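Re-running the complex after MR caught last week's input typo. The corrected sequence lines follow. Everything else is unchanged.
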Amino acid sequence: MQHPVFLNTRSVSVYFGLWALIAGVHFSVFYFIYFFPIDVAIADSLIFNGLFCAAGISMWYIVRYSIPDQKNSWNVIFNHLSFLTLTLVVWNGLSYTILSAIFSKNKVYMDTLMISIPNKIITGIIFYIVIALVYYLFIYYIKIQEKVKVESRLREVLKETELNMLKSQINPHFLFNSLNSISSLTITNPEKARDMVIKLSDFLRYSVSNNATSFTTLENEMANIRRYLEIEKVRFGDKLLFSFNLEGTCRNHQIPVMLLQPLFENAIKHGVYESTEQVSIEMDCDYKEGFLEIVIVNDFDPNAHPRKGSGIGLNNIRERLRLLYKNDKLLRTKVEGTRFSVFLSLPNTETTL
Amino acid sequence: MTLRTILIDDEQPARDVVKHYLKDFAEIEIIGEFTDGFSGLKAIQELKPDLVFLDVQMPKLTGLELLDLLEQPPLIIFSTAYDQYAIKAFEMSAVDYLLKPYSKERFTQAVQKALAQASSGIKALAPVQNLVKTLEENAEYLQRIAVKSRHKVSVVPIEEIIYLEAEGDYVMLHTKDAKHLKEKTMKYFETHLDPTQFIRIHRSFIVNAKFIDRIEYYDKENYAVLTKNGAKLRASTTGYKILKQALNM
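Corrected-run output:
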């Protein structure tokens, strides 16, 4: 954070202007009320106020690193008390040394100097408190501004992600092709058609009833993905194979809703849609070093050049993980020959925004 | 009159509907079913059908890319689940297009159109005006180009193309290790390739900005673009201006 005095020319002139004003009042009192000689009045005012003006600037570094919170409030008080004492001692000591060296012959002034020490200490404490308060106000103001900015950006990103989620969930191509399959099944196998209508309805219900920040169990999410893949299997028959391995405790792990769906859609899009060979999609999960690791592997044809840009789905997921877990290294991909793998590592504790 | 017909669609249920609806048409004889673009193309070339039911989204080669490679296309009825491709189907003079899922009435209409065109020998184009808007909203640049040599069909991703060169009625696509001839105009590529990446620098050249190595004087007035594979392409005065703009020079 920048020093508040040196933010811009205005802040510099306000700070030094105020000190000039104080020095002026100080001088006037000495010159017009106590009738000190002009050189004494000027020197006394300049040295005492000039030195505190400098001390006030350096105070920033104490304030900056003494932000009170629940844990270190004693620390903050200790910092300030020691710096205040140091300031008062150095300020008075230095001023006294300089002034007494110049005006040693002026007996009246030397006496005044000695007598006014308690007054100077009180003034110094007041100066110190006022400056520290102004610095703290500045810090809180900046922090609040930053917080407001970050929060509005976060909300924006969340809205975007939610919108992208909705867009990717109800893929029109998938929807219309499924409806066409149903239309066909009503001729060849009405019972299967009814079954598919129910699966499609359940799938759509799951997709629209959740938002970007809700969580569900892995088991629940995979049940919806099974529905999705079974619908695709009606369309593609033996060309599509899939198997899940949901081991013991994994199935109850809380994961963000619809997090895995786009990964399976990608597997279908780049695997099944673009290949003439059989495509198998496998899912496995396990705990590793406190993380739930989910692996999704699919076959694909490395010679098929996608007609549309890929990677949008993966970026969406990365963005969601970054928002939910404050970590953007939770998703990795790997290509090995004709096998594409996605690795997801999910922290054990779920966080909600 | 019998129309020898083939179905090309990668989904069994989708082909089942067509077959079921076609039972009512004695004039139509199904001579084959295919499940991807390559085998479909081969079938059309070998079996020479009169009518093809063609799905748009398929592995290897889309229905549109397939039709684009045919010199004398048969009657085509497109089907797609998503109408973004519809307008292109008309540009390629398809008989009709069907949006999945479609009714039997709509299907019958399309087949009758095909029968009428087969008996009259006149290819009538379906109306396009109400679809122009769809085109503008879904304007997308080409991502890949299907090309064919004497023996095989291949798909060239556009990011592998270094430059395009006019060759009479054709355009030559130059990649790092091959050249492909495509029966299209320079104007077509100028409008269908992303202009921030592909720059028309001359009447005869469109260059991929990614592969520009340097630009130097060709003669007193003109410049030449040198590509990373060592080709030297002349830039016209207007072409050089466009190039400067595109590269922020």
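None of the earlier attempt is carried over here. Chain A is about 65% helix and 15% strand. The mean pLDDT of chain A is 87.
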